[in-house]
Amino acid sequence: MTAPLLTASALTVGYGEGAVCAPVSFAVGPGDVLALVGPNGSGKSTVLRSVLGLLEPLAGSVELDGRPVDERRAEHRAAVAAVLDDDAWFPALTTREHLLLTASGHGVHEPGAVVDDALDTFGLDRHGDAVPTALSSGQRRRLLLAAAFVRPRRLLVLDEPEQRLDASLRRRLADLLRAEADTGRAVLLATHDPVLLEALDAPALGLGDEDCPTLTPAQAVAFMGR
Ligand SMILES: Nc1ncnc2c1ncn2[C@@H]1O[C@H](COP(=O)(O)OP(=O)(O)OP(=O)(O)O)[C@@H](O)[C@H]1O
Fold it and tell me: What CATH number does residue 145 fall under?
């Protein structure tokens, strides 16, 4: 069995005044996709923030390669690509410049070719010279996703990647995430999209107050509809 890349054990998360959901335990290894599902406010983003080392757990642990996560470590930054809820970009850089900066900063060989590929994949090829304020909100979301795909990564963490994407890219998202897993990467995502979940055919963790069950894809879709 392949050693897990990311392991959460009785991970309890919150913002200082008690947990936002029951403790979660899971492991994600190379080739795995795991979805976090649950209603608004059930704790998906909070779990992802703790997994990324951005929020100290209230209890339990989360480890990357067997060591407590620490986003300041170079090994962590080299391994983990994440797209959260926040819109973060440099206002004076074009789409292409953003992606080149990200790829080059992470030491990608021939970043120009990688960036061209990502612009094409995310339907931004006609917007390579636009600054973020000249993009639509969905195009800016595409830019943030593309930035995760132009850098080296062993674990991809996405918070509701379907947000603001049109139907066409939503459909392609499942293929992109499956391809991640097929190339030996791990994917952890939070989602509200049953279509994406079904297309991914991946297990899920249902976040709740009492417990957080591991769900099959079909159970996860039912859980989302509760
Ligand atoms: N910065 C914060 N400080 C205090 N409480 C917060 C903070 N961010 C979120 N919360 C609270 O934590 C709980 C879980 O929020 P979280 O964003 O993790 O939920 P979620 O499952 O991602 O929701 P959604 O589906 O709406 O994105 C909510 O009750 C929310 O009000």
Answer: 3.40.50.300
